[in-house]
Design brief:
4-stranded mixed sheet; 83 residues; CBS-domain; alpha+beta
Length: 83
């Protein structure tokens, strides 16, 4: 198991977030802005954004993410799919 946590910038495109999730075999990523965690983005949020007409190659993560503080148990529930 890796101890390194992957993250994504709020200005990164949704497609980059999806690629990173696939690469690291995760369903959610912390979203970073100015070296601070400002929320999370999940594969479900990306799918919803695309189904609502957002272009994944031109839409920044910040428009589809869930803002707010992140607590480890919430992230783990999201990653496990139990939330």
């Amino acid at each position: 198991m890796s101890t390194q946590v992957s993250r994504i910038s709020s200005s990164a495109m949704l497609s980059e977030a999806a690629d990173r999730m696939k690469k690291f075999h995760v369903d959610a990523l912390p979203v970073i802005e100015d070296n601070e965690i400002i929320g999370t983005i999940t594969n479900r949020e990306i799918a919803t954004a695309v189904s609502e007409g957002m272009n994944p190659t031109t839409t920044p993560v910040k428009y589809a993410m869930t803002p707010g503080e992140i607590h480890t148990h919430e992230v783990m529930e999201t990653v496990r799919g139990t939330k």
